[in-house]
Task: structure prediction
Amino acid sequence: GSEAPGKLEGIESWATWVGLNLLYERYLVKRKGFVVETPNEALERVASFVAEAELSLGGSLDAARQEFYEIMSSGRFMPNSPTIMNSGTKYHQLAACFVIPLEDDMDSIFSALNTAAWVFKTGAGAGFDFTPLRGRGSPLSFGGTASGPVSFMKLFDEVADVIKEGGRRRAAMMGVLHDVHVDLEDFINSKLSGGLENFNISVGVHDAFMMAAASDSEWNLYDPNECPQLVGLLSGDLPDLWRRCSPRRTVRASSLLEEAARAAWETGDPGLVFLDTINQHNPTPRLGRIRATNPCGETPLLSWEACNLGSLNLGRYVKDEGIDWELLEHDIRIAVRFLDDVIETSWYPRPEIEAAVKRTRKIGLGVMGWADMLAKLKIPYDSDSALYLADKLMEFIAYVARDESNRLSRERGPYPEFPGSIHKDGRFNFEPQVSSSQIYDESKVSDAVHSIVNSRPKLDWDRVRSEMMEGTRNATMTTIAPTGSISIIADASSSIEPFYSLIYIRQSSLFSWVELNRFLRDWLQESNNLNAEKIKDVIRHGGSVRGLSWVPSDVQAVLGTALDIDWRWHVRMQAVFQRWVDNAVSKTVNMRRDATVDDVKGVFIEAWRLKCKGITVFRDQSKGVQVMSVNQNI
Ligand code: CDP
Result:
């Protein structure tokens, strides 16, 4: 750090100490252990490297470079971490999400491990469907018996452990097992006794399973060794499976769901992945079915696909107690171009991955800073107004993003699989949609929010649909990622989550300090309450102000935290964003410590009913170590 009081520019003019620290430790290019670039230079590196795609695609490199740099250095947009870390470096792998296929043989398993190691090395994560692996105790061709999917997951976990030691980022994995597999209970309970630390796990469930659980019916479990056709099934195929294969066991569906809810209540895992909903929205059905997602669940992908993500920082679009729709539209278009360019400039760890990515050209534009936007507009997270605004805002992002992809297609050509896609037939990814009235009550929306939405530019979906049928550049446009690291860099609240806590005690190797939520700090200051006594009171109250008698009720309403907010609102918020999102929405339904197993089951059922693509819960203090807590270390 220089002592001279020079004028700071770009990211250096607004970044927080925590954000800069993260950049220096993990993102800036180092040589021989020394950081050799400034944060602004890092963003210039990213902008220049990604803009190089314009050369082969017939665009303007200089214009793109400047636009890309501007949206990042202003803090309005950040690409996913691997793009920031790896642009312009030797292994310039830029995507965050991968799905790597597995088959029931040694070659396939060890080759998947090898691919996964490369994915982890570049700071990205991978998801796997373990359903093809034969069940525990099933015979092997050379004699002996199989050890089952869970034992192989331990092997993947070991590899992830070893790779992360040299890396800058924890290797993250998603393990999926479908609800028809004979080892389902082993899988559901696989994280109860510790281990599998690098895995999130999800049960891939069918609509038929959820209905069987609701009606307390029997459910058949099969061994893929005996019934290979159970891999990649959807509900419609189940009657055929039931006719043609003999189950290994039959269990009550409701007790399986109960078991999953109990394990999730205890550890946060498993989540559920809703296979039928995901595949109803598969844009390229000719290429096969989607059986797994990336580590945090926001990107369901076909085998070998990868997806690069980027997020707009919503807090930065609040202007005059409304939304700056023009600036937002401008940035969506640049971000879409950026993410399409990333596909061209990225290095891929396997030829199969490169081929799959370039066949569908999936991108995932999303948002962060949603809680910031709501707080600036003084809208409580748990309100019909917030859900309505989310609905109209995400519709706008979906609309402009698809419009831009159509325009890019006229310039650069459609994605190669377009002729076999739903887009060619005039169907958007988010159709069919759950109706908004199932999620919120429009009659309860405030006048202020109505007027924000009324200032939104008019959307002409018919025009966008007919232009899309002529060609569109990307099979998916939108994804809502957790934005765990990039929201810290951008100084934004993460993803579409409410504030986790209004106060953090942060610790670095040198000292610890109290970090106040900016909206709380501003209010404390305005109301003459910024003193140690009041801050201690908020800390004693678990980092929340709801229920504190000296805080007025409107402030309590607007500053609700993740644990203040009832799980039903968490699920509704996920569902309302999902209405317009092509991929999926990563969201954690945070629950209070006293939530019951039945509540967790309630979350599962409600998320399924509202057509979420997956669901994850986390009950306060249910795990020894939490990613975020009031006592967070940095
Ligand atoms: O904020 P950032 O771009 O670093 O990532 P995120 O939005 O929190 O996570 C997006 C995706 O990045 C995850 O779903 C994973 O696929 C991947 N990821 C990973 O591989 N390893 C991590 N430690 C964190 C995220």
Notes: Residues 625-634 have pLDDT under 50 and may be disordered.
